[in-house]
Amino acid sequence: MGDIISLIISGIANGSAYALLALGIVIIFRSTDTVNFAIGDTGTLATFAALSAIAAGVPIAAAFFLAIAVAGVVGIAAERLLIRPLGHGQHLLFVALVITIGLGLVMQAGMGAFWGNTPKPFPPLVPGWIQVAGVAISLNKIAATVFALIAMGFVAWFFGYMPFGIAMRASAEDPLAARMLGLNTGRIASIAWFLGCGLAAIAMFFLAAESSLNPHIAHSPLFRAFAGVFLGGLTSMPGAVIGGFAIGVLDNIAGHYISANYRDTIVFTVIVVVLFVRPAGFLGSIRKERV
Amino acid sequence: MLDMTSAPPALAAEGVTHRYGGVLALDGVSVQIGTGQFVSVLGSNGAGKSTLAMVLAGLLAPSSGTVRAGGHAVASRGHGGPIAGVSLVPEGRRLFGQLSVRENLLLGGFGAGASGRETRRRLDEVLASLPKALRDDPGRAAATLSGGEQQMLAIGRAIMAQPRTLIIDEPSMGLAPVLINQVYEWLSRLHADGVTILLMEQMATHAVRHSDMMVILDRGRVVYAGSPQGDAASAALISGYIGEEAL
Hints:
heterodimer; A: two-stranded antiparallel sheet; 11 helices; 73% helix; B: alpha/beta; Rossmann fold; 2 domains; six-stranded mixed β-sheet; 8 helices; 35% helix; globular
């Protein structure tokens, strides 16, 4: 029993980065109908920028906010230059998806060329460790978990109750109708990409401190974040965060009780079973339409 | 071109032409909508009514010509944008189906720049004017409403902007007669409250009964603009819907 509790606690801590990434993915998807595969690399790029700033003497807390700003601006630029010119439509979802995959690969190559491919040590935002139910957890992971939970609460409130958040959902559903009402769909898209990519920067900032920073660090977390998104529901922001945490816990349990070699297999088998029973994920909703 | 009032018209199109690629949708349309008027633009399918609605609402920049609101030019070749004080209920309603009734209404006020408090005040007011099914369950997704409920919600959403001019495109499309009556009753109440109404309709019966001016479009051109009553109006209606050869 003690094992399970400690595995869950450390799994939640591990899953915080997946949860933040998943939330970023869902914000962008729900606001602009685009699945952004470059979101992890955007966060990595911003974390490299923060590393250069730290090396130049910028305090780590300031570098943290710099990373968020850099990722946000890169996100806005990507949306304006690569996604917005495509227009809107169901068939463009796949075009945009391929474009963001390509953008991510270009970013990785660019980061490798500029900062090199060898892993670089990265300082934690909050150094130190604490014992939770007998498990030693880094304060860095605790901070990431707290950020993920605060972000989830804020985003759920913002999109559920604030007019601008509701306008973001409306804009994703029908941008022309949104413009007819006087809503500025271009500004809505920019804010969504800023928020989504900013959250990715937070995730990568915490992940880099847990291991080290390299241009390909986002691969595995992005894979798990997408799993979390589908597990929680592509349309649900709280679902994405819960899905991200659930992936962290599943990952831990599979690694401990079965084999570390079969972690991915076990995690994704469970997801397939869940999606078979609930195709929209735990908290996602199937589109309801009167016929 | 007909000018019914001495005050600057609420909306005016001056020599407006619009092309979709090689297809001419509007061909030199000039029309004035006087402040406080109830104007119907009639015509068969493909006459250019929806294009004119979009152009007059500022949502489609004309290929040539000018749109004026209150005497000021607001849209001309290549330049457009939603016109302050003008709300459009588009053909097919274009509600946000996955958003609730309340959220759809709220966006009508928010998009027009109303403050949060003002939007909430308007929301209560507009909800009170909607059918009971909508009032009782404002959390219901718009996509699950019936056609009549959706049309009422679309009008309510437009009213949330407190427009001086309401453009409504094909309000009777797909509705049962009893629901069409409800829609027209609401439009009449809005007109009585001082809102200028510009109606784009294929079904002439209701439109003619409520309007004080009628415009008939045929293949993108104005073939009649004037009183909806009298022999000239009847002849124009027959010509516009059935063709010159029918006369």
